[in-house]
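User: Second chain of the day. Same drill as before.
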Amino acid sequence: GLSAGILNGVGQLAFQNLLSASATDKHIEISRFTVVIVLVQIGIAAFGGRIFFHEPFTGKKALGLLLALCAVKLLVGK
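Assistant: Same format as last time:
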């Protein structure tokens, strides 16, 4: 619980810095990063389920994570 709280705090600080940077710099697009944040959360949940709860890592999960990585590349990549 303590490590989750620390990571949540770090994530909140990073997100607030991103929001403040987007107000001054027009090159940062918040719409891209909010989708990336959700996709990263999904990936962490899939790997965390496998590591901590010994859930099976099925082909559907692998395909979903691969497609999520493709979505991140299309949204953020230049």
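The CA atoms of residues 3 and 9 lie 10 Å apart.

User: Great, on to the next one.
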